[in-house]
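Per-record layout

source: Gracilibacillus marinus
name: ZIP family metal transporter
length: 271
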Amino acid sequence: MVEFFQNFNPVGQAFIATLFTWGMTALGAMLVFATKTINQRLLDSMLGFAGGVMIAASYWSLLGPAIEMSEDNDIGAWFPAAIGFLLGGFFLWAIDKMLPHLHPNTSDSKAEGFLPNKRNRSTLLVLAITLHNIPEGLAVGIAFGALANGGTEATLAGALTLALGIGIQNFPEGVAVSMPLRGEGMSRRKSFLYGQFSGMVEPIAAVIGALAVAFIEPLLPYALSFAAGAMIFVVAEEVIPSSQEKGNKDLASMSLMVGFVLMMILDVALG
């Protein structure tokens, strides 16, 4: 796998990796062709698992490397990570306030953002997961973009591990959009298209992230921690509340821990 990716530049690597993560979203959305409904406990556990993967990736794949790169910072190694992390969270908060969206497992009355007079539930659900996928695509792009600044094969392995982890947790995201739409009577084909569409933003965000850090090396620790802050905001604001909305708090919490441990093992063992 590493040898295959070495045939491409970092931007190409990021694009190819996020085609995989987008494909995992589509794979989850394909469940609509097998069944019309999904057990709520299973869906909540999958969302919790996705949150755990994102939290672990935020540290081991993003914040940790950002701190290591900043050891020579005059203020302290913590400074770029802290500033980037807070800026990432603020960036997603601002988008969250502006972009109309509806979190999975919530009623239409809880839609957020600048809402049009005519609300389309399917569009709002897709926009919620699209918002979720922006920092994931940025994270993968930034990880691969770091290779342009002298990354080693170990760094490439770490970027691939991050893409693998995000791909794994994208599966329940596709389910979280497509299955509710199917349950409300939308056709299988439309439910699938809406579900996979939410992952389309990841390759775009990845290319932007890779290009930014490939040409502006001093930004790298800030960019890595920016992506981490954006991901943590999404987990705290969307993923965890959505996984517990229907009362399955213990199951969702334990699933989050399993997702965290799995991503930690992947990153430490393979990265």
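summary: The two ends are 13 Å apart (CA to CA). The chain has a mean pLDDT of 83.
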